[in-house]
Amino acid sequence: MTTPIPTRLDPGTAMTDEQRAAFERDGFLVVPGVLSDDEVAHYAAAVDRVYEEHAAAGKLAADRSLHKLNAVESCHELAPLLDHPKVFGLVWSMLGWNVHMYHSHLDVHPPLTEKKPFRFEWHQDGGRQNREIETDPRPRLSVKLAYWLSDVSETGRGNFQVVPGSHLTNWIAGPPRRDVEWPNPDGAIEVTANPGDAVFFDRRIWHARSNNYSEITRKGVFFGYTYRWVRSREAMSADLPGLTPVQRQLLGLADGDGDHAWGHYPDQVPLHGLLKENGLLDPDYPPLKP
Question: 218-239 in b/e burial notation, b at 16+ Cβ within 10 A?
Answer without folding.
Answer: bbbbbbbbbbbebebebeeeee
